[in-house]
Amino acid sequence: MELNVPIVPVYISGTFKALPSGSIFPKPVKVGVSFGNPITMEPYQQMKQTEKPYYVYKEVTEELRRRILALKSEIF
Fold this sequence. Notes:
It is built from 3 helices and 2 strands; from the N terminus they run E-H-E-H-H. The chain has helices spanning 15-18, 42-50, 53-75; strands at residues 10-13, 32-35. It is elongated, with a radius of gyration of 17 Å. The model has no long low-confidence stretch (mean pLDDT 93). The protein starts with 9 loop residues before the first strand and ends with a helix.
């Protein structure tokens, strides 16, 4: 947010099957990667002028979390 660059949400699926806990070598399985729309920082830059930084960062984090969960639901 400090650099005013967008954050791109990404969800990666299938990695646990590719390399389960305790495995040394990965298995040949399909791994999927989904990219979401970027989250622009302009609204949060404006919020930062009236809100404490902690709450603004928390809001950015929650928005990122919501978008990643949405990507997950699109895959399954």
